[in-house]
From TrEMBL:
One of its GO terms (molecular function) is polyphosphate kinase activity. InterPro entries: PLipase_D/transphosphatidylase, PP_kinase, PP_kinase_C_1, PP_kinase_middle, PP_kinase_middle_dom_sf, PPK_C_dom2, PPK_N_dom, PPK_N_dom_sf. This is Polyphosphate kinase. It catalyses: [phosphate](n) + ATP = [phosphate](n+1) + ADP. Keywords: ATP-binding, Kinase, Magnesium, Metal-binding, Nucleotide-binding, Phosphoprotein, Transferase. Residues 1-22 are annotated as: Disordered. The active site is at H465. HAMAP family: Polyphosphate_kinase. GO terms for cellular component: polyphosphate kinase complex. An intermediate of this reaction is the autophosphorylated ppk in which a phosphate is covalently linked to a histidine residue through a N-P bond. Mg(2+) binds at R405, R435. Pfam families: PP_kinase, PP_kinase_C, PP_kinase_C_1, PP_kinase_N. Catalyzes the reversible transfer of the terminal phosphate of ATP to form a long-chain polyphosphate (polyP).
Amino acid sequence: MTDTLDDDRTASDFDDDFEPFDLEGAPELPAERYLDRELSWLAFNQRVLELAEDERLPVLERANFLAIFASNLDEFFMVRVAGLKRRIVTGLAVPTNVGRAPMDVLEDISRAAHDLQERHARVYQELVKPALAEAGIRIVKWDDLGAAERDHLREYFSLQMFPVLMPLAVDPAHPFPYISGLSLNLSVRVRNSRTGRQEFARVKVPQMLPRFVRVDPTESIEDARYVTLEDLIANHLGDLFPGMEIMAHHVFRVTRNEDVEIEEDETENLIKALEKELLRRRFGPPIRLEVTDDMDDVTLGLLVRELDISEREVYRLPAPLDLGGLFDLSKLDRPELHYSTNVPATNWQLQPSEPNRPADIFEAVSRKDVLLHHPYESFATSVQAFLEQAAADPHVLAIKQTLYRTSGDSPIVEALIDAAEAGKQVLALVEIKARFDEQANISWARKLEKAGVHVVYGLVGLKTHCKLALVIREEQGVLRHYSHIGTGNYNPKTSRIYEDLGLLTADDQVGKDLTRLFNELSGYAIEKKFKRLLVAPLHLRKGLLKLIANEARNAEAGKPSGIRIKVNSMVDEAIIDALYRASNAGVPVEVWVRGICSLRPGIEGLSENIEVRSILGRYLEHSRVFSFENDGDRQIYIGSADMMHRNLDRRVEALVRLVDPDHIAEITEIFDTAMDPRTSSWHLGGDGTWTRRSADDAGHPLVDLQKLLAQQTAQRTRAGKRR
């Protein structure tokens, strides 16, 4: 296997080595060959829920999975369902790969979402809540408390809650109030004792206060009781409406359309347009109403009428609503109720040569490419250290980096600021359109600009989603490129829970490719020729299609063939159809997907050679990998792109080809384990049903891939070598 392409060949030339697969005479693919993407997403969230149901997991982790499910579903409604509804209302075309009317799709989503939310509530009430109580974490109601506990909570309410509550009446002088998205609210019906007139009022549950309130702080944390914030407020409504008779109260919650749509043109100031749109987001139309199942018809009718919401969009659920509040409880300091501690290891190549001294990242990378695997390997001692050393190194002349999502007080951003203040040339391409991180990214961008960093806000009509960093360093009068290409964001916080891959390399060709790409992103260069990269939106899909077609030709010629793809989402029809045709040609295809998968595996005459697996667990599987057998000369790419229209057509994405035999062997070994029937995973059937296989026929648990990788990484680190 050659280490790089010949210097006089480009990625475009490389692509041209692959002629399109001859489709003449190939059977026509059936019309119903795709699974609905929205229902597939709901199936993904069901897999998250199944983790909460798993009694083998620590109970606070199960509570955390309930909260993740709730948070995921909120975003699904705010973006996916809202987007579908907006397109239907405005008469825009609704993209669907299943050939059904948009309203039918919404009906299917509604049925599936209702079933899942009801199951979610049952899992909490019947499984997780009792398990928490068994572990000494008891969620009780006001009626269960004695006089002493009530007195303490009344004092807490008076001092800590009453001053921040804002009861809002609805009457001829007070119109129905604006209900903010995802806020928890109490609907209250009161009666004026003098006039006998009944009125409606709304009390918003403050989001800045703890959702679960400790009943008695003197109780041991190993045996403590909690009441929900809304229960505490509900039992003090007399303080909020003195002189009024409280007739009834119920809890409700509204989800609004928060999908940002920016009309971009060449003359518009993108950052100002986005800020304007973010302001409008707060007032998006309601698309879901959750109410407690004890709500009376009069109150529900008022809410439905005032919010202008349909019956299909109403979700009646047992209290408590918004189980995302379980994030608070899941953080309790009860180590025995969490996953065991796993400390990320420093990659063996980046370990310091002397104790108590930092490693020389540049020297290590110049010796050999470094393949990083987070969170098993530390982000702080690799990517973060790389950028911090670059900022402090007097031999470094320039740093160029993309930022899609980062964290508050980010050491990555601070390193870029330090570099700029030290007089280095620093370019930061901040993607201010990263959904739900827009405001934070605008703030970071302005902070960077003030420090002298050259900030670029992305390209008109495209999101810059690739994860790239390039450092230019002078060594003995020669400029050298040091590059990082990753599958995940430059975010130290999420790097501890997201599984991602990254390549640190001093390869000159990769550096030249990144230089050209950054020039294209920051200026007006139109450079389309890359040697180690596949870049969207112009060439990535085409390059993958040609690689897939090559495997099909090899299979038909009797040569070794095989395709392995790991992504978060598999939706793009052109890629899926190419995989179907490769399967029909005899290519074994293995797809490892975390979330959405529109591909139907195991269908005779269509996809009998395709297997699809999903692995969910302690860490969020986030890396993207593309592996091609290539007649025994295996080629593997890693990068930022999922197989979705937005990634391939409307984003700047980059994949880099791995060339180190050790790295290719390592990725192959991980894939071997993931697809092994002895590894715990979910298996996708052709009808869209996912089946979990976590134990063998004798009931023994199957291999936990993430736990195994953590153990293997620790062993390699102790041994001081990669493999």
